[in-house]
Amino acid sequence: MKKIINYVGGKEVHCSKNFLPVFDPSKGEQIGDVVLSNDEDFSKTIESSKNAFSNWSKTTPLKRSRILSNYKSLIEKNIDSLAEIVSTEHGKTLDDAKGSITRGLEVVEFATGIPHLLKGEFSQNVGTNIDSWSVRQPLGITAGITPFNFPAMVPMWMYPISIACGNCFILKPSEKDPSCSIKLAQLFSEAGLPDGVLNVIQGDKKTVDNIIQTPDISSISFVGSTPVAKYIYEESAKNLKRVQALGGAKNHLVVMPDANINQAVDGIIGAAYGSAGERCMAVSVAVAVGNIADDLIEGINNNIQKLKVAPWTDTDSDMGPVISKDHKEKIEHYITKGFDEGATLIADGRNYKIQGYENGYFVGPTLFDNVKQNMSIYKEEIFGPVLSVIRVKSYEEALNLVNEHKFGNGTSIYTSDGEVARHFTTNSKIGMVGINVPIPVPMAFHSFGGWKQSLFGDHAMHGMEGVNFYTKLKTVTS
Q1: Would you state the torsion angle of the CA atoms of residues 187, 190, 192, 193, taken in this order, to the nearest 10 degrees?
Q2: Helix crossing, 205-213 with 39-58: angle to 10°?
């Protein structure tokens, strides 16, 4: 039984004697223990980061860039082993795991451009013989609190840019799949990163509260549910910290009557059921406009039957288990509630069993038709392989649905009409919008972030938003 502990000062350490179990979701069996860090662990982590910051903040951006370039190469060489770690503890297929690591790697690649990204502005002769210029300087010690669904990608949205900007970074990964963060930190050390610049501390809410309350940490980055994002945002503000806290989602995909139906169906299948729906950018609501609804439902249901639900060790698997027994029960409760509230259950993923993996946390692809706005399965984030289809008569009604929902993370529209597409991108009150693209996740050199209750704080993740978040602006007049 492996022990997953902290990575502080370039080595694996821990003081606490308390551990939590880590499970293989495919089998429902314990495969390890992760340490529950105590106050002494936290103090040692802060001390390590403090000791490292003085030298690292003075290291030239060009040297930081070269270390990041080495790191990129090491991740590429180790992508298979990293993906296997992710799949073992999360359950997602190897292809999903590799894809998510590649997405994170793109942020590392973006961060290698830090010498250019940190360039300031200059104005000559703002007054008689007076010049003015701006510079961006590091914050100090920064922290990230990351979710279970992307144990490689989401941390890499944060720490490469923070570290490139001259900060030290403390990562608190999910206790459900904590091993990947240790491997990523070890590879960064191998790439030449000085000890203490990236530290990983395991734990639960106690560790989170320590991060929030300590005056030694300048900023917190978070991805997770909206209630926790709001808590971190509010409590961090009391402790004078910068925050980027990404919360929940209920992403709508609007299908217009003139859409390419096959293209729309293919997009929905991947976006709704990929990674067992455990993605903040997963499509959980398909909005069928006008007379396209019946064909859309038929196409989705036919494709669902072809999906293979299996453990990640099966190379033909399209969809693995969900993360835990509790989460499986929560998703199945939502399916029952949707049926009880009057939605038409087309495909039922409850009580899904696979021979040899009877104790695994599998939920089959689930499809509802005739969903209404007042139903729980429409209003709340389920975070599983459950797709709701809601029928509307017009484009205007579809746009209102998108805009009236409390979440504003991502949305897409499938249409052949350029005027409708342009109107949708302009008038949808959502942070990330796709046109004939099911999951509109921005590339690393743009920024990721929602609106409304999907983002708390002023800055989105990565891109120039990330550089601005992890630096302080200083303006000099001379």
Answers
A1: 40
A2: 50
> Residue 435 pLDDT more than 90?
yes
Task: Tally Cβ neighbours within 10 Å of residue 36.
Answer: 18
Which 3 state secondary structure label does DSSP give 339?
Answer: helix
Which pTM value belongs to this model?
0.96
CA torsion 254-255-259-263 (nearest 10°) is 90
Q: How many residues does the chain have?
A: 478
Q: Do the bridges between strand 366-369 and strand 344-347 make them parallel or antiparallel, or are there none, so unpaired?
A: antiparallel
Distance in angstroms (rounded) separating the CA atoms of residues 95 and 80? 10
Task: Name residue 151's amino acid.
Answer: P
Q: What is the 3-state secondary structure (H, E, C) of 243-259?
A: EEEECCCCEEEEECCCC
**Candidate list 165, 168, 180, 280, residue with the active-site label:** 280
| Contacts of residue 374, Cβ cutoff 8 Å, sequence gap at least 6 | none
* Nearest by Cα to 286 from 305, 300, 306: 300
Tell me whether residue 396 is exposed, middle or buried, using C-beta atoms within 10 angstroms of its C-beta: 0 to 12, 13 to 18, 19 or more.
exposed
Is 432 exposed, middle or buried (CB count within 10 Å of its CB: 0-12, 13-18, 19+)?
buried
Tens digit of pLDDT for each residue in 278-315? 999 999 999 999 999 999 999 999 999 999 999 999 99
- Say how far apart CA 281 and CA 75 lie, in whole Å: 24
Q: Are 214 and 207 in contact (CB under 8 A)?
A: no
Number of CB atoms found within 10 A of residue 247's CB:
26
Tell me whether residue 15 is one of the annotated catalytic residues.
no
Using one digit for the tens of pLDDT, what is the confidence trace for 3-33? 999 999 999 999 999 999 999 999 999 999 9
The average pLDDT across 133-157 equals: 98
Q: What is the pLDDT of residue 28?
A: 97
Which residues have CB under 8 Å from 425's CB, separation 6+? Answer: 433, 435
